Amino acid sequence: MKIAPIILFALCFSVGCAQTQFHASELPAKYIARSTVDYSKVDLTSLASTSVKNDTIQSGDSIQVNLNTGVSGEGSDLKWKVSVDETGQTSLPNIGPVRLAGLTRAEAEKTIVQASLQRDVFLTPVVEVALEKRPDRLIYISGAVKNPGPVKVSGTTASLADAIARAGGLTSDASGTIALSSSADNSSSPAILSNEIIPVGHQDTSSFHARTVSLSSTSPQQLAQIVVPEGALVHVEKVEPRPIQVVGVIKNQVVEVPSGQDVRLLDAVTMAGGQTYSNWISDRVTITRHVSDGSGTIRIRGSIRKARADSSENIPLAPYDIVTVEENVLTFTLSTLSGLFGAGVSAARITGP
After folding, report:
1. Is 159 in contact with 47 (CB distance < 8 Å)?
2. Separation CA 141–CA 233 (nearest Å)
3. Per-residue model confidence as pLDDT tens digits over 13-67
4. Under 8 Å CB-to-CB from 303, ≥6 apart: which residues?
5. DSSP state of 156
6. How distant is the alpha carbon of residue 303 from its chain centre?
7. Nearest to 128 by CA among 146, 148, 108, 142
8. Does residue 76 contact residue 69 with C-beta atoms inside 8 Å?
9. Angstrom distances, CA of residue 135 to CA of 49, 57, 131, 138
C-alpha cells in the first residue's frame, strides 16, 4: 500500500527524519559553531627583525668620506659627501664606483682603500667614513593593529612580523586576513592570493606583488620570513559585524558578537536584557542556524535551565543565529493578564475623577 506524500512528510517531520532538528548537547560536529580566534594574543615582538645594525651602510644613506692620500703637501686631505644609490654603490672622485651597502663603517673604509690600491689611484690612503644622513624608510599599516599609520623600518625591507610588531601588534578585531600591496602596484594587476614565503635578505623587491596572507594557515615564524619592501601597504582586515538575534519571550534585540570572543546561549540571553520570566516559567529555546555549506537551516532545541547546570548545553552561537525563547501556556497567560492589567490601569487613569 502506498502512503500519500503529504502523510509521509508529516511522519518524517514528527520523528525528525529530515535531520534538520537537533538537541543542543547532541549537535553533530559539522554544525557546531567555530570558535573565535583572538589574534591579538599572537606575540610577534620576539620575531621582529634585528639583523640590520645602525652602523651598517644602507642604500639611500648620505656619507662623509675623509681620505688622506698618504702624500705630504697641499691636497693630501680629501673630503667627499656622497650618497649610496639603490644598487648599494657610491661613486668616489678618481676612485670610481664602490659598493658599500651592507658594510659597517670599518668594512667600508677597508673596501675604499682596496679599491684605491687596485685601481692605482692612491698608494697609501687612510680612509674614514661617517654617516651623514639616513632617510626615513616607511611601511604603511592600516586596519586591525594597535597603532595604524606609517612605521619606520631599519632597512630597505622588513619582515611582515617586524612591521606588525612595530605597529603595536594585532587587535582583537583582526579577521586573520592581511593584504599586502606595493605603493607602486598597478591597480589593473591581478592580486595573487597566496602565502608565498621569500626569505628576508634573499628577495628581489622589484618583483614584489600584491598578495593576501591568512593567519589561520601561516605561523608566526613564517610571518618573519615574508618580505615587505619599503613603501609597501599592509592592511590587516577587521572582522565584519557578526549579529545574533534574540526573539520571543524576551526583549527582542540584535546583539553583536564581541571581537575575539565566543558568545554562548546564556551570554546572548544576558546581552539581550535577560529573561522576561524566570527560567522555571520560560525555559525552552530554539536556535535557528544557517548551515555553512548553504544547504539551508537547522533547528537546535535547548533549555535555559540545563544550560545553567551543564556546560555542554550552553552551546556556542554562530553569527546570524536566531535564538527564540519559546512561548508556552503559562507565559502566554501571564502576558495576557499583564496586558489586561495594564489596560485597566490606563483606563482608570483616563476615567478617574
Report:
1. yes
2. 6
3. 444 444 589 999 899 998 999 888 899 999 888 877 654 456 788 888 999 999 9
4. 24, 283, 284, 285, 313
5. S
6. 36
7. 108
8. yes
9. 19, 12, 11, 9
How many Å is the maximal CA-CA distance in the chain? 123
Cell of 25: 548537547
Domains of the chain plus CATH, in order, are: 17-37+241-333 (3.10.560.10), 48-52+136-238 (3.10.560), 62-133 (3.30.1950.10)
C-alpha distance from residue 85 to each of 166, 208, 229 (Å):
26, 20, 16
Locate 186 and state its grid cell: 598597478
Determine phi and psi for 248, rounding to 5 degrees.
105, -140
Q: Is residue 65 a contact partner of residue 122, using CB atoms and an 8 Å limit?
A: no
Cell 634585528 maps to which residue?
Answer: 50
- 154 vs 46 pLDDT, higher one: 46
Averaged over 140-149, what is the pLDDT?
A: 95
Cβ-contact 291, 28 below 8 angstroms: no
Using one digit for the tens of pLDDT, what is the confidence trace for 63-107? 999 999 988 777 789 999 999 998 899 999 999 999 999 899 999
3-state secondary structure of 205: helix
DSSP state, 241? P
Query: Alpha helix (H) ranges present in the chain?
Result: 5-15, 105-118, 160-166, 220-223, 265-271, 304-309, 329-351
Number of Cα atoms under 13 Å in the Cβ half of residue 168: 13
CA distance 63 to 83: 6
Give the pLDDT band of residue 330 (cuts 50, 70, 90). confident
- Which amino acid makes up residue 172? S
Chain mean position to CA 149:
15
- Banded pLDDT at 352 (limits 50, 70, 90): very low
pLDDT single digits (tens) 222-263: 999 898 888 899 999 999 888 999 998 888 889 888 888 889
pTM, 2 dp: 0.65
